[in-house]
Every structure is written in C-alpha cells, then in structure tokens.
Amino acid sequence: MKKAIILNASPRKNFNTAKMLKEAQKGAESVGAEAEYFNLYDINYKGCLSCFACKRKGNTTNCVCAVKDDLRPVLEKCVSADAVIIGSPVYFSYPTGEFRSFLERFLFPIHTYLVDKETGNLKSLRPKTIPVGVIFTMNCPKEMMERYNYPTILEDNVKCFNHVLGYSEVLYSCDTYQFIDYSKYDIDLFDEKEKAKVRDEQFPKDLENAYNLGKRLIEMQI
After folding, report:
1. Whether pTM exceeds 0.70
2. Cα(122)–Cα(163) distance, rounded to whole angstroms?
3. Burial of residue 212 (number of CB atoms within 10 Å: 0-12, 13-18, 19+)
4. 50, 129, 187, 218: which has the highest count of C-beta atoms within 10 A?
C-alpha cells in the first residue's frame, strides 16, 4: 500500500490551510493510499543545528536527521513515503518558520556535497523519488500576489524539494477568508463581502484542486 504524509505548517488546525490539506489527504486515500496527518505546530523541534552528522564520512543516518527530537519519527515516515504534501500560510512573503525548519531537517540529510562526475550535478541520497506537493494559502488576492512577486519567492522553496527529492509542484489559494467574524478586527484593506464571495465561489475550486493534487501524487509512477 502506498503511503502519504500530510503536514500542516499553519498554527491554525481547522482553517484554510488545514482544509486544503485534508482534501489532499482525501484525494490520496481515494486511490488507495494510507495517509497520516501531522500538525507541525504540535511538534517540538527546531531547524537544522549544523551538527553535520549527516555529512560525516561513513555516517549511518540513512537520510534521516541525526537529531533525536519529536520531529525525527515524522522525518523517518517522510523518507519512506510515496508522497509528501505540506501546506503553509504566507506571512510577510514567506511560509511559516515551522515550514522552513521542517524543510531544513527533511532535505539536508538527503542532500549531499558530492558531485556526479557524469552530469556535474550534486548527488542526492534519496532512496527513491518522493513526489512533494506544496500548498500555499494567503490573504492577498492573486493580482497582489503577483505584484509582490510571491511566486518567485515561494517557489524557491518548492525548487528545493524538487532538487533533492526528484519532483515537486505547487498549489496556491489566494484571497482567503481570514477571520470567522470580521467585525471584531481592525481591517479596511479588504472588503468582507468580497472575501465571502471568494470563499463561496473560488475556495471550493481550490479544495477540489487540493483533492486532485493528493490523488495525482499517489498515482504518479516515478
């Protein structure tokens, strides 16, 4: 049975990012995958500590970060998974710190400083290609996202997964409905009625895209 690991890098467990990820999980399960879901904010961990245990000659880390903390069991599952899907809201042009810390801990033990003499590319220690889907949710509308150059900034993260693990793709959900009750907050940059319209008309399409992402990654034959 194929396995998918779903990772929520948002502090909110039941809002936009989580809803997208849960649909991706359903998509993976619809084609027979066993899926596990983790809220990264519930796990006590830090980013790479630069111990370089994974780069020592003769190391036995087996592509898993040597630091024995609460994230390690999740990393072990990710290395053996058939697909990994991670989602994050966008804060000040970037994914959350938990997202970045996970990326460092997941990728660095698989990434190497060794050059393939035939291709000139850096070698990866991955046991197989691990397709990664990245979901970014954000309050800003699509045109604002493009004006602020978010695709270039955010997709640098996605490229890291592709470079080390062999395949990655990205899915955006823009102009999200951010608050349960807008009347309680100081905000006049966005029109709540327009936000509600996007929530009712566009967000269901975003959820469908997330479902298809989960399904597609499991069905890939790499």
Report:
1. yes
2. 9
3. middle
4. 218
